[in-house]
Amino acid sequence: MTLFFGFYQDIGPALSLLVVATFVLAGAVKGVIGLGLPTIAMGLLGMAMPPAQAAALLIVPSTLTNLWQLAFGGHLRALLKRLWPMLTMVFTGTLLGSAWLGINSGAWAAHALGGALLVYALYGLFARGMSLAPAHETWLGPLCGLITGVITAATGVFVIPAVPYLQGLGLSREEMVQALGLSFSVSTLALAIGLAGQDALGIQALSASLLVLAPALLGMLGGQWLRQRISAVLFKRCFFIGLALLGVHLLLNG
């Protein structure tokens, strides 16, 4: 039992409650709009603990919820055939970035996290949908994958520029949901390997991550229920505004 609860005994009841509440909220956001679990988790927990510690907590819930998202849709083989160059570079970029930068406990990591959150929020609020010509996928996909990987290694956030790139491919709603699950699964796996290489993902950290799976799934189910009863557009706008404020706070104050 000490193995499973040792992390939470070390951080105390107040911070443990914050962790649980964060994953309920992050799961709810993912349930409503299909993404946001690691972004919310990194943003909120990044204010209270080192980014590497926050990133380690999201490994299990992020992996399982993304695999769940990936499993349904029937487009997996076609997406793998189309996206493998980008996915390969996401994986490679994350490992290279982990060796070069890493999510250490320095103040710069929190500032970098804030910057990544702010950029993603501004994109979500103001960017108009773009359309990419198929001819550009051969070079732009790997480039976006590499940049996404390096940002993932430095901040634990793996949405920029992968999400805008995927949104520009003209995928159907079902394909897009599955493509996001695929991209996020690869990013989470590479991040886990990078954290393990920095001695930030041991048995205790994995046990702590396993224990927040239930709050994340509970939040996800609540979010899916809520999605049928609110405006998804309004919710997404509120999500990005909150994310922008969080990003500014971390960027300025670390």
In short:
This protein has 254 residues and is mainly α. It has helices spanning 2-33, 37-45, 51-71, 76-100, 107-126, 137-155, 162-167, 173-197, 203-211, 213-227, 232-253. 80% of the residues lie in helices and 0% in strands.
Count of helix runs: 11
The pLDDT mean sits at 85
Which percent band covers the strand fraction? under 5%
Which of globular, elongated, flat, extended, rod-shaped describes the shape?
Answer: globular
Number of strand elements? 0
Largest sheet: none
Through-space gap between termini: 34 Å
Into how many domains do the coordinates divide?
1
Q: Nearest-angstrom radius of gyration?
A: 17 Å
Helix content: over 70%
Structural class: mainly alpha
Residue stretches low in confidence (pLDDT < 50, at least 5 long) are none
Order of secondary-structure elements = HHHHHHHHHHH
Describe this structure in words.
- This protein is an all-alpha fold.
- The protein has one domain.
- The protein is 80% helix and 0% strand.
- It contains eleven helices and no strands.
- The protein has helices spanning 2-33, 37-45, 51-71, 76-100, 107-126, 137-155, 162-167, 173-197, 203-211, 213-227, 232-253.
- α1 (2-33) packs across α2, α2 (37-45) runs antiparallel to α3 (51-71) and α4 crosses α6 (137-155).
- The longest helix is centred in the N-terminal third of the chain and has 32 residues, at 2-33.
- The mean pLDDT is 85.
